[in-house]
Design brief:
Length: 417
C-alpha cells in the first residue's frame, strides 16, 4: 500500500502513540506498575457522583436521547450556554455561547488550531507554533500537517529549597518573529507540573497582542475545573486568548470532550472544521455533565475533592522519592499542578530512553522525558535527555513499588552505567 505525504507523516511512530500503547499495555498486563500515562485517578467520590449522574440519565431517558441524535457542529447548545454562564459567573469573563465550541477531546482541538493558525498561507508565507517554555506536552509534537511546524524556547532553571527546581520562561531568549502564528502553553504544564506565573502569562499575552497572534492556554488541569493547581494563579482569558479545557482530568477521559473558549471568529472557524471532520462532536460528555455545569457541582467537586486528592498524593510522592533517592544529582520540579512529577537526574550517564527501557523490563512504566521537547532542535542539550515523567496519582501501593524499582535502577546506573 502506498501512503500519501499525509499518510507517511501520520503513520510513523510518534511519542504520543508510544504513550497510548504503553497506557493500554499497562492497563492490560498484570503486574505492570503503570506510572506512565495521563489517566486521571479513580477518585471514589468523583466516580460515585458520575455513576449517579449516569443512572439519572438512563432513568429519565436523556442517555438514549443524547446517543440517538447528532448535536450541532459547535456542540450541544444547552451545554454551551451552561458553560458560558458558568465561566461568566465563576471567573467574571464576558463569555457568551458565541465564544465556545466543543471538540472530541482537546487533542482534536490542538490539531485544528495548530493547522488553522500555522503552516502554509495562501501567499506562500509559512508560520510556526511557538512553545515559549520547553518541556511541553508530548501530545502537541506530532499534531501538524507540515514538517518543521513547531519552535520552542529553552527555559531558565531556578533551584529551590529541598531538592526542588522550577522552570521559567526565558524572556531574554524568547524571539517572536513574523514567522510565528500562535504561542502555546499548557498551564499547569504536562509533564512538569509547572504553573506559569501570572506575570509570565501577562507578558506572553502582551507579546501575542503586539504581534497580532493568539495565545493558546491549554487549561486541561486548570481553573475552574478540574482545578488541579496547588499554587496561587489567576485564571486568564481575553478575546486574544484561546483557552482549551477538557472533561478528561475531571475523570471522564473516555467521553472525549474538549472545550475551546475563543473569539467568535475563531469559534466559527472551529465549528466549520468540526462539521467537515466530525459532523458533530460526541454528545455523551455534554449529556453526562450538563447538570453539574448548571448547578455548580463541578466547582464544588473540583475544589473540595479533586484538588485536595491530587495535592496530598503529590506531596506524599515527593516525600517518598526524596527518601528513596538521596543523590545530589536528583531534582524534582516543584509540583504546582497536573498529575505528574518531573524528575531530573543531572549528568545521567545514559539517555532517558534507555532508562525508560530498563525500568520497563523491571515492570515499571514511566515516560522518558525527551519526548516532551517539541520544537527544540538542539540535539546536544543534555538536560532534555536526563528527565522522566511519573504519574503520581495511582494507588499508594503502585507508587511506592514504582519508586522502589526506580531508586534501585538509578543507584545502579550512577554507580556503573
Ligand atoms: N492537554 C494536556 C496538557 C494534557 O496533559 C492532556 C492529556 O493528557 C490533554 C490536553 C488532552 O486532553 P483530552 O483528553 O481532552 O484530549
Amino acid at each position: 500500500m502506498e501512503f500519501s505525504t499525509f499518510g507517511q507523516k501520520f503513520t510513523r511512530h510518534a511519542g504520543i502513540t508510544q504513550l497510548m500503547d504503553d497506557l493500554n499495555q499497562g492497563l492490560t498486563t498484570p503486574n505492570t506498575i503503570m506510572l506512565g500515562g495521563g489517566n486521571p485517578a479513580a477518585i471514589p467520590e468523583v466516580l460515585a457522583y458520575l455513576d449517579n449522574q449516569a443512572q439519572q440519565l438512563i432513568k429519565n431517558g436523556d442517555l438514549i436521547k443524547a446517543m440517538a441524535n447528532y448535536d450541532g457542529p459547535q456542540g450541544k447548545d444547552a451545554y454551551i450556554n451552561a458553560l458560558a454562564r458558568l465561566l461568566s459567573k465563576e471567573l467574571g469573563w464576558p463569555v457568551g455561547p458565541e465564544h465556545i465550541a466543543l471538540t472530541n477531546g482537546s487533542q482534536t482541538a490542538f490539531f485544528y488550531l495548530f493547522n488553522l493558525l500555522a503552516g502554509e498561507f495562501a501567499d506562500g508565507r509559512k508560520k510556526k507554533v511557538l512553545f515559549p517554555l520547553a518541556p511541553e506536552y508530548i501530545g502537541y509534537g506530532d499534531g501538524a500537517l507540515s514538517e518543521d511546524h513547531f519552535v520552542a524556547c529553552k527555559p531558565t532553571i531556578t533551584q529551590l529549597d529541598n531538592g526542588l527546581f522550577k522552570y521559567h520562561v526565558d524572556f531574554d531568549q524568547l524571539e517572536v518573529g513574523d514567522d510565528i502564528g500562535l504561542i502555546c502553553v499548557s498551564r499547569p504544564t504536562n509533564p512538569t507540573g509547572n504553573v506559569l506565573t501570572d506575570e509570565e502569562i501577562m507578558r506572553l499575552d502582551a507579546i501575542a497582542r503586539e504581534k497580532g497572534i493568539p495565545l493558546l492556554i491549554d487549561n486541561a488541569y486548570g481553573m475552574p475545573f478540574p482545578n488541579i493547581i496547588f499554587t496561587e494563579a489567576k485564571p486568564f482569558w481575553n478575546d486574544n486568548t484561546i483557552l482549551c479545557m477538557s472533561l478528561s482530568k475531571l475523570g471522564l477521559p473516555g467521553v472525549r470532550c474538549g472545550i475551546v473558549v475563543g473569539s467568535p471568529e475563531l469559534i466559527k472557524a472551529m465549528t466549520n472544521i468540526s462539521g467537515i471532520i466530525n459532523l458533530a462532536p460526541g454528545s455523551m460528555g455534554p449529556a453526562m455533565t450538563l447538570p453539574m455545569m448548571e448547578n455548580g457541582d463541578v466547582i464544588t467537586l473540583s475544589n473540595e475533592v479533586i484538588r485536595p486528592f491530587y495535592q496530598a498524593k503529590a506531596q506524599q510522592a515527593v516525600t517518598w522519592l526524596q527518601e528513596a533517592i538521596t543523590l545530589p544529582q536528583f531534582h524534582i520540579h516543584k509540583p504546582e499542578g497536573a498529575l505528574f512529577l518531573w524528575l531530573w537526574f543531572e549528568d545521567l550517564p545514559i539517555h532517558s530512553q534507555e532508562l525508560y527501557e530498563r525500568l520497563k523490563q523491571k515492570g515499571l512504566l514511566v515516560v522518558p522525558g525527551h519526548y516532551f521537547f517539541p520544537g527544540i532542535t538542539d540535539e546536544h542539550w543534555q538536560h532534555s535527555k536526563e528527565c522522566i515523567r511519573l504519574n503520581y496519582a495511582q494507588s499508594e501501593a503502585d507508587v511506592q513499588a514504582g519508586i522502589k524499582i526506580l531508586a534501585e535502577e538509578i543507584y545502579a546506573i550512577y554507580q556503573a552505567p
